[in-house]
Amino acid sequence: GAILGIEAIGSKGLGRLTPERTPDTDGPDYNEGNGPDGDVDEVDFEDVDPPAQNTFTLKEHKAHHDSHVEDTRDYWETQGYDVDSEISFGMCDGNGNCRADLVARAPDGSLVVLEIKTGNATLSSNQRRVYDFINSGDAYPRGQKAQDLGLNPDLRLRDQGYPNGIPVVTTSFPGLKK
Q: I need a surface site. Which of 69, 101, 136, 177 has the fewest CB within 10 A?
């Protein structure tokens, strides 16, 4: 059935689909199969202003994100950490992998995973799952960059000196503005 507030392109141009209210329930009338013809009862098409067009390219968004990654790297390095970028981690069954923006090693050898988000970006469902495994110590490091950090891709983090996992710090920055 129709869902209140869906934007759609119709014969009148861009608009918003809104179910018509019925006098008997004062609720939306869009229960499929309940109309006399077994279809959705009336749906109004209201004209609305088109959404603001994104005037930034994917390349501009990436450059903006990358600049915050570099600023974050610089900050952690001034705190005495060695920082590397794009280290991969995965789950034991191979069904989830993700690449952290940065991994920082403290002077005492401990690690912290740094994920940078810009604008309205949030962790993907895969990132949330794998980062939970990193936090618990159940993730596996992946790839040469992880090996260069001294991590063994054949062992869970908890089995190579991180029994409580590695903390994951997510930092958000504002998006692009014109």
A: 177
- At 90-141, the pLDDT tens digits run 987 777 888 999 999 999 999 999 999 999 899 998 899 999 999 999 999 9
Confidence at residue 176, expressed as pLDDT on a 0 to 100 scale? 86
Tell me the C-alpha distance between 118 and 66, whole Å.
10
Which DSSP category does 100 fall into?
E
Element containing residue 65 per DSSP (H, E): helix 58-78
Who contacts 115 (Cβ-Cβ below 8 Å, separation ≥6)?
A: 100, 101, 102, 123, 127, 131, 168, 169, 170, 171
Please name the amino acid found at residue 153.
P
CB neighbourhood size of 57 (10 A): 9
Residue carrying the six token digits 């390349």: 59
